[in-house]
Design brief:
It contains eight helices and 13 strands. It is of the alpha/beta class.
């Protein structure tokens, strides 16, 4: 039984390695991805941190781009956006403005950048660890505007809970694993779009670890959003599932369940 379990785990690791290697733009890049797929999860288990991100050239939808990968969670971000196609829905044509809230290290930005090359993307990420890699990945792209802040229910500052070594779980809503914190600038989405001179958001993407309810509940200009897409965290939001879904009433929704507690939702604004 134990041998069978070990064999299953080995097969799953191999499948994952092959999938990630397939993102490489050239054979040398695929080899790098395969090596990272093996090494970074091991480094995480051994609590080896502080390694310099590795630059790899990837390909998505016929577009090649450079991407820096520094830890196992950067690989997960690439899997979600480029392999699992979390944000792959039928969008209205030719979006001009995309706001990516919870951009993390920029895997979702890369997806939207390749799919909609003429759009301007505002990438919002408060975690300083993730933002440093986001800068490496998109800081030189004039079509991507980077913002190191959090968006939520008020303006000011807030304490961002961080899980050590885990750059994809930071949240304004504290959880037991968040044993570190950092004070970050905080804006409402209304204040943000006013400051950036945004009249209409063609695609609003969010993945903010349970803070989606407070963000949208306190967004007065929701009529400026044509479409939205993001991850719902039923287990983290401070309200019931029905209360959470009520904030999406202005949109016709479709979603994909990730688990009993998580889902990816897409909404087009109702006529």
């Amino acid at each position: 039984m134990r041998e069978r379990l070990m064999l299953t785990k080995a097969r799953n690791r191999l499948r994952r390695t092959v999938r990630l290697a397939g993102l490489g733009d050239a054979p040398a890049d695929s080899a790098k991805m395969a090596a990272l797929a093996q090494w970074l999860p091991l480094a995480h288990r051994l609590s080896i941190r502080g390694t310099r991100p590795t630059r790899v050239k990837l390909s998505e939808s016929g577009h090649a781009f450079s991407f820096h990968i520094g830890n196992a969670y950067d690989l997960i971000a690439l899997e979600e956006s480029l392999l699992n196609r979390d944000y792959d829905f039928d969008y209205q044509p030719s979006p001009r403005i995309i706001v990516d809230i919870g951009a993390n290290v920029g895997a979702s930005v890369a997806y939207f950048r390749c799919r909609f090359p003429n759009a301007v993307i505002h990438a919002v990420e408060p975690d300083p660890r993730a933002f440093a890699t986001l800068q490496l990945n998109h800081g030189q792209d004039s079509a991507v505007k980077l913002h190191q802040l959090a968006l939520g229910r008020r303006n000011g500052t807030a304490s961002l809970g961080m899980v050590p070594g885990k750059t994809n779980a930071s949240s304004l809503l504290w959880r037991a694993q968040a044993t570190e914190s950092v004070e970050v600038p905080l804006q409402t989405l209304d204040a943000f779009i006013k400051a950036q001179g945004i009249e209409q958001i063609d695609i609003l993407k969010f993945d903010i670890e349970g803070a989606e309810y407070e963000l949208l509940q306190n967004f007065a200009n929701v009529d400026r959003v044509r479409e939205l897409v993001g991850e719902l965290h039923y287990d983290l939001v401070p309200v019931s599932k029905n209360q959470l879904l009520a904030v999406f009433e202005p949109f016709s929704l479709t979603w994909r369940a990730l688990s009993d507690e998580r889902a990816i939702v897409h909404g087009a604004r109702k006529p």
